[in-house]
Structure formats: structure tokens, C-alpha cells
């Protein structure tokens, strides 16, 4: 086959190899990201169903209507029941408030319990729950009650025997401020406890599982019957916010991958340009020998098809490797094991390769078909092609890929505009630097002068290289700054004695004792805030469901029950922006006020313990969440909540010296929970590190694509460089001088890129410090060192390697060729 024979010869030239590598990078990067996100999405869907312990859950403040469960059974669905409530548990050693679930024998319908016979064991999967008369306690609850297996525990009027330590209940959820030690009993024993009385805070759940169509039919039947206080939850609804977050993450990663695709596309275009330039005479000769445009078109398409198949196959294999490595880097963040990748998702990588080939190679390859036989007689005559069409085709191709990745026009448009602005700024700075270098190299005779002069002589090519490597280095430095400095800088700037432990689930009669304990050891303690749970049900007299028909659109203020408090002033960590803190209305945090579009004088209706009350907004507060003081979205008048039983919350600052005494004293208050902020920050830092590692993998492929562009651009100008080297060496310059000129040219290019990257990365990190962390500006001196050093080393190595022919080929051979 002629097309294959021609390609085999061309692989040795390097141009076709550059094109294939660029195609492999394009397909591999997008395939890897697409497969990983698909696995993440699937694992989340599985995890969401497991977190619900069912495919559907109906939750209500009142007992579930028996007809609803009968209807589910009639529609061939599996059912289970669960009742959740808080109650005191009593043992011979003491008492403890716990979160108890009474479950039916069929529970859970999805996932499994984890239970163990060893205290704080890792657990063994089991689908069989406690039998009648048995209770399973979390290891923490068993420790607080000082009981072991076989001991007896009282709940209300019933006595239970501890038979297992509960490691995980698949359907249990809770916020930070509702963390409580857990226990489960058999549903048949609930009535014996006599703990459910009118006014008790209890939640009833009907769990369903079965075939998807049967579930959808049941959804249609039950939805009209749902009223306020009753919710139908599905894995999809439960995960709408996380699902949208995953979707946004996919768009972000693919857009980041688009940079690698764009650079690979440029490399493909440069390689194709050189390939076309070298083969114009060959195709002209073939036309003189009788080859028709149709035959040449077919030959070119065969070659492109072969290249596409080679690049696509290798790229898909690379994509599988990329998604595996990303999954490995992020495995500690996954709640469930990632499922296998879906081969149906390979189409995105294949489509990327095809669009890239069509946009960046086909317009250039078309020049070969358009060449005239007269080119054989005048090979030096420039070929007239439509350059504008080629550029437009590349831009349209990239925009099309971004549209495919994001499913909309907004993000691609913003990214195009951002790239244009960055390109103008960096190109302007680069032009000034190159112009400055040229002004210092008039009458160049030394290697460093010749090298600096080369930057300006190939101005457009070098400006593009400067843009590429500046952006790559900037992204790398920003990731480094976030991973290594940002959180630690924030911690260092916290005021002295900033609270580092939260205390919650504190009863009214425990407040004085804990305050005395803190004062005894000179431990700073924040104000105590009473806290109850409530829900915003109306805004300005309009129901929340009417304002936000899609649950995923609900802001935090109305999406769930929130913590409410009452106070006589705003307390530490917040201050009034507008209005007056009054006993006649409520005070609302400024950001959530913007989210729900309310201002002074507007009214909110709250449901607290089944009692609905409407309050006007009399003040808007700005809250400093980094103060580590207890703060709330809404503060109500004291009279509004005085009728409700509340838990209290506060925070303390513990040092290594005071912590042991405080922990020992807190053993007298086993119902109180403490959250160590330091441990939480360590978890956040670990998450940031792992996410940074995953992004660095994407950045590596962007860097690879950038290196490929540099190599391809050098190959495009290789004939010019060879000619310059031959002339210099003929005029008496030795190989050392030519090598020095190359080192200076590429070293200066990398150095300038690193300097500009350090500047832009520092500006970006400062913006994050000010906007995100609300902290004072801290400079990062190491970034100013890393940028120029890393840029100089990387660009010099790649540039000199790609230009090595200038040093190897004898001048006499070059002069004969020219």
C-alpha cells in the first residue's frame, strides 16, 4: 500500500512522529480525564444509594401511612422501616445521650452493616441486624457507657443486651453539630421503650428498593401525596449538589486538558506544515506523472487515516493508564471503591483526536493536492494558500472541543477571552524583553549576543513559545503555592488564642461546670450559644418550594434544617453591616442574605419544632468564619426560642500543656462532643495535597504538549537554523560558539518565561489569600526562585536537544544543500 510505504519512510524524519505523539497526547489526556470522571460519577451513584441504604426513602415527622407501604409491596418493591430518635442510654456505670435507630429485619436494602466483636474494630459486613432484645452500640458509645459485649443497657422502659459493636450503619447521616454516638435496636422493641411521646423529635423512614421502572411508577403515585415535612429522597436527589460538583469538576479538568489538546494541535499543525513544505515537490512530480487530484486526495486521506488509527489506539491505552493513576492518587478521598471504566466513554477521546486532525492537519494537507506541476520547474516559488482559513479552522476546532466538554458556550467563550487577554499581556512583556535584548546585541560577536539576537529575529515563534511556557509554569507554581503554603499561611495569621476546639451537644446544666473547668486551667472560652434546629419555609411570604422548584438550586439557608440561636448581641466574629440588632426581629448573615435575595424589612417564616413563626429582618451581619467563634446564619430574639429545649455550643483554645487537664475534666461530661479543628485542618491539607497531585498529572501532559510545540516549532525553523549555523562556522565560528548561542537563546527564553510565570503566580496566590482566605498578604520568595530556574532548565534542555542537528551536521554538507 503506497500510503503506508510513504509514511514508513517519513517516520524517520521526525515530522510524522511529532504529529503522532501530539495525537496520542490529545486522545490520551481527554480519555484519561473522561474515564476517571465517569468512574467517579458511577461510584458516587453507588455510594449515594448505599448512604440511603435503599433506592428510595420516604421520611416524615409522623408515622408512615400504612397504605404507602402496601402500595409499594403491590408494585413488587422491597420495603424496610426505620425510626430515628435521640434518647438517653443507661448502664451501671452511667448514662449517655445517643442517636438511636429502630430498624426492621429487612433493613438495609442497599449496602451492609459493619459490626465487630472487638471494641474499635474495623468491622465485618453483615446484612442481619440486631434481634429482639439486642442492641448494637458504636465503640464510642460503649466506651462512654463503660460496657462490653453481654452487658445490659436500658433505653426508656426496656432493657437490652449488647451483642455487637456498630462500626457503620449505612443509612445514618448527620451534620457536624449533630454528631452523637449511635446505637441500633430491633423495630419490634421500639414500643417497649415508651420513649416516643407527643412532642418527641423523631423521624420515620420507609425504605424501598427494586426494579427501576417499578420505582419510577411508585414515584409517580406517591409524589402528589407528599406534604410539608415529608420528603421522597433518591440517590440522584441526595446527590444533586455533589453530582453538579462532579459535573463542574469534569468541565474544569477537561478545560485544563483542553490546553494540552490545543498545544498538541499546534504541534500537529507545525509538523504538518513542515511535512507539506518538504513534500510539495514530490506531489508536483506525481502530478506530472499523471496522478489526478482525486488519487492524491485518496492517498492523503489514507495517510491521515493510518495516522489517526495509530494515534487513537495508543492514545486510548495512555488514557486508561492516566485514569488509573488519577484514581490511585485520589483513592484515599473515595468513600467507595471506584468501579471499572466504561468503554463506551472512549468516544470523547476518539472525537478529540478526529477533530484535532481535521482542524489542524487537513487544511494544511490540502495544500499538497492543490500544488501545480509547474512547481517542479520553480521549487523556490512560494506556494499561495489560504492561511487565514487554516487559522480559523484551528480555532473553530478548539472551540468545538470545548463546547463538547462543557455542553455550553459560556465557559468556552470565557476561556477564549481569558487566553486572549493573557496572550496579549505576556506577548507585550515578551516583546519588551526581546527588544531590550536586541538593543544590547548590536554587532553581535559573542555567543550570548547571538543567542539574545535570535530571540528577536524569530519574534513571532519565540513569543508563542514564551506564552506557552509562561502559562505552564504559572499553573505549576500556583499548584505548588496552594499545596505548600496557602493553608499554613492562613493558620499562621490566625490571632493568638484563636479557638481550636468546638464544644457542642452541651446541656443547660453543664454550661456552668464546663466554664468553671476552663477557668480553673486559664483556658480561653468563647460565649455560650443556645442552639435549636429549624427550617426556613417562606421568604417574603412565598413558599421555598415555589421559589426553588429544583432542590439542587436551593441555597444553604433553605436546603436543610439549620442551627438557630438567640442572643442579646452579635458576639465575637461578626459585626453589623446594616440595620440594628433588635429584639423585634432577626439578624441574618450577609452572604446568605444575598443568596436568597432579602434585605432589611423582608420577612422570613421559620418552622421550629412544628411551630411556624414569621420574623422581619432588622439587621444584616458580616461573619468572619475564620475567627473560629460559634457563628450562625440567623440569630433570633431571645423570646422567640425561650420555649424550646436547646443544646449549647462554644469553643475553647487548648495548648499542649492545658489539653490533658481539660480532656480529663471533660470525662465528667460524657454527653458533650468536641471537634478538634487542628485535626480537621490536617484532613483539609491532605485533601488539597491529593487534589494537587492529580492536577499535577494533568499539568505534566500540558507540559509534554508544550515541549512538543517547542520541538515542532524548532523543526519548522530547522532549515533556517542549519543555514545560520553553517554560515557562522564557515566564517570561523567554532562549535563551542554555536552551542553557546543555542544555550543562551533557549536559556533566556526559559528564564523570561519563568520570571513572568513567577509574577503572575504570585499575583494569583495573593488574590486567593485576599478573596478566599481573607488573610493578610504573604509573599512566597521560593516561587520567585523556582520559576526562572525551572523554566531555564526545562526550555534549555528541550531546545538544545531539538536543535542538535545544527551542531552535528558538517558545514560543507549544509552549504552544498543550500
TrEMBL record:
InterPro entries recorded: ABC3_permease_C, Membrane_comp_ABC_pdt
Keywords: Cell membrane, Membrane, Transmembrane, Transmembrane helix
Pfam family, one: FtsX
GO cellular component assignments: plasma membrane
Compartments where located: Cell membrane
Domain ABC3 transporter permease C-terminal: 256-369, 698-811
Transmembrane segments: 252-271, 304-326, 346-366, 387-408, 414-434, 463-482, 694-716, 737-770, 782-807
Protein topology in the membrane: Multi-pass membrane protein
This protein's name: Putative ABC transport system permease protein
Organism, as annotated: Marinomonas balearica
Record lineage: Bacteria, Pseudomonadati, Pseudomonadota, Gammaproteobacteria, Oceanospirillales
Amino acid at each position: 500500500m503506497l500510503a503506508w510505504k510513504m509514511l514508513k519512510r517519513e517516520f524517520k524524519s521526525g515530522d510524522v512522529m511529532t504529529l503522532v505523539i501530539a495525537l496520542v497526547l490529545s486522545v490520551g489526556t481527554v480519555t484519561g480525564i473522561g474515564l476517571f470522571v465517569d468512574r467517579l460519577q458511577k461510584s458516587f451513584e453507588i455510594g449515594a444509594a448505599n448512604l440511603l441504604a435503599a433506592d428510595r426513602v420516604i421520611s416524615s415527622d409522623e408515622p408512615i401511612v400504612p397504605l404507602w407501604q402496601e402500595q409499594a409491596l403491590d408494585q413488587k418493591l422491597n420495603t424496610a422501616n426505620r425510626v430515628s430518635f435521640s434518647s438517653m442510654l443507661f448502664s451501671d456505670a452511667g448514662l449517655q445521650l445517643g442517636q438511636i435507630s429502630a430498624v426492621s429485619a429487612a433493613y438495609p436494602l442497599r449496602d451492609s452493616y459493619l459490626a465487630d466483636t472487638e471494641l474499635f474494630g474495623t468491622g465485618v459486613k453483615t446484612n442481619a441486624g440486631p434481634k429482639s432484645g439486642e442492641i448494637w452500640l458504636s465503640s464510642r458509645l460503649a466506651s462512654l457507657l463503660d460496657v462490653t459485649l453481654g452487658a445490659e443497657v436500658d433505653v426508656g422502659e426496656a432493657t437490652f443486651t449488647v451483642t455487637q459493636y456498630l462500626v457503620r450503619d449505612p443509612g445514618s447521616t448527620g451534620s457536624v453539630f449533630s454528631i452523637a454516638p449511635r446505637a441500633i435496636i430491633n423495630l419490634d422493641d421500639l414500643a417497649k421503650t415508651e420513649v416516643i411521646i407527643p412532642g418527641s423529635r423523631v423521624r420515620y423512614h420507609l425504605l424501598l428498593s427494586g426494579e427501576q421502572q417499578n420505582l419510577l411508577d411508585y414515584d409517580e403515585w406517591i409524589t402528589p401525596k407528599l406534604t410539608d415535612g415529608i420528603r421522597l429522597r433518591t440517590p440522584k436527589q441526595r446527590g444533586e449538589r455533589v453530582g453538579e460538583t462532579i459535573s463542574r469538576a469534569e468541565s474544569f479538568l477537561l478545560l485544563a486538558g483542553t490546553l494540552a489538546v490545543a498545544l498538541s494541535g499546534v504541534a500537529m499543525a507545525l509538523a504538518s506544515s513542515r511535512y507539506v513544505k518538504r513534500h510539495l515537490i514530490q506531489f508536483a512530480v506525481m502530478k506530472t506523472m499523471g496522478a489526478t487530484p482525486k488519487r492524491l486526495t485518496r492517498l492523503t486521506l489514507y495517510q491521515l487515516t493510518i495516522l489517526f488509527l495509530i494515534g487513537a489506539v495508543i492514545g486510548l491505552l495512555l488514557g486508561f493508564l492516566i485514569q488509573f493513576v488519577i484514581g490511585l492518587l485520589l483513592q484515599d478521598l473515595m468513600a467507595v471503591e471506584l468501579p471499572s471504566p466504561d468503554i463506551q466513554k472512549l468516544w470523547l477521546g476518539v472525537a478529540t483526536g478526529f477533530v484535532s486532525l481535521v482542524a489542524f492537519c487537513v487544511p494544511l494537507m490540502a495544500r499538497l493536492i492543490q500544488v501545480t506541476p509547474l512547481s517542479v520547474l520553480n521549487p523556490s516559488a512560494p506556494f499561495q494558500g489560504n492561511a487565514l482559513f487554516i487559522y480559523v479552522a484551528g480555532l473553530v476546532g478548539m472551540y468545538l472541543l470545548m463546547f463538547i466538554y462543557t455542553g455550553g458556550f459560556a465557559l468556552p467563550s470565557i476561556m477564549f477571552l481569558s487566553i486572549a487577554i493573557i496572550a496579549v499581556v505576556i506577548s507585550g512583556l515578551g516583546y519588551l524583553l526581546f527588544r531590550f535584548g536586541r538593543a544590547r546585541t548590536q554587532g553581535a560577536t559573542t555567543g550570548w549576543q547571538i543567542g539574545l539576537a535570535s530571540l528577536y529575529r524569530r519574534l513571532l515563534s519565540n513569543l508563542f513559545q514564551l506564552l506557552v511556557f509562561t502559562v505552564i509554569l504559572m499553573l505549576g507554581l500556583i499548584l505548588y503555592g496552594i499545596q505548600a503554603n496557602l493553608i499554613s499561611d492562613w493558620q499562621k495569621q490566625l490571632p493568638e488564642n484563636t479557638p481550636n476546639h468546638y464544644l457542642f451537644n452541651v446541656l443547660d446544666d453543664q454550661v456552668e461546670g464546663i466554664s468553671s473547668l476552663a477557668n480553673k486551667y486559664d483556658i480561653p472560652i468563647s460565649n455560650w450559644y443556645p442552639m435549636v434546629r429549624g427550617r426556613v419555609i417562606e421568604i417574603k411570604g412565598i413558599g421555598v418550594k415555589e421559589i426553588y422548584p429544583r432542590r439542587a438550586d436551593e441555597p444553604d439557608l433553605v436546603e436543610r434544617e439549620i442551627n438557630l440561636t438567640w442572643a442579646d448581641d452579635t458576639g465575637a466574629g461578626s459585626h453589623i453591616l446594616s440595620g440594628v440588632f433588635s429584639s423585634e426581629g432577626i439578624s441574618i448573615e450577609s452572604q446568605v442574605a444575598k443568596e436568597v435575595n432579602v434585605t432589611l424589612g423582608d420577612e422570613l417564616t421559620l418552622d421550629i419544632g412544628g411551630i411556624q413563626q414569621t420574623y422581619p429582618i432588622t439587621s444584616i451581619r458580616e461573619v468572619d468564619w475564620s475567627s473560629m467563634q460559634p457563628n450562625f446564619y440567623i440569630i433570633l430574639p431571645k423570646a422567640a426560642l425561650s420555649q424550646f429545649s436547646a443544646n449549647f455550643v462554644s469553643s475553647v483554645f487548648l495548648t499542649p500543656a492545658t489539653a490533658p487537664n481539660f480532656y480529663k475534666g471533660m470525662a465528667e461530661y460524657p454527653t458533650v462532643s468536641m471537634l478538634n479543628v487542628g485535626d480537621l485542618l490536617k484532613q483539609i491539607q491532605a485533601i488539597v495535597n491529593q487534589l494537587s497531585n492529580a492536577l499535577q498529572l494533568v499539568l505534566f501532559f500540558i507540559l509534554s504538549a508544550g515541549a512538543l510545540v517547542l520541538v515542532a516549532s524548532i523543526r519548522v525553523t530547522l532549515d533556517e537554523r542549519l543555514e545560520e549555523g553553517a554560515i557562522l562556522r564557515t566564517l570561523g565560528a567554532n562549535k563551542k560558539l554555536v552551542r553557546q548561542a543555542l544555550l543562551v537563546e533557549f536559556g533566556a527564553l526559559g528564564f523570561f518565561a519563568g520570571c513572568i510565570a513567577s509574577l503572575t503566580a504570585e499575583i494569583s496566590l495573593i488574590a486567593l489569600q485576599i478573596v478566599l482566605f481573607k488573610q493578610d498578604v504573604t509573599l512566597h520568595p521560593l516561587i520567585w526562585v523556582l520559576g526562572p530556574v525551572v523554566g531555564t532548565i526545562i526550555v534549555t534542555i528541550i531546545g538544545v536537544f531539538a536543535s542538535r542537528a545544527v551542531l552535528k551536521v558538517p558545514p560543507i554538507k549544509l552549504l552544498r544543500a543550500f
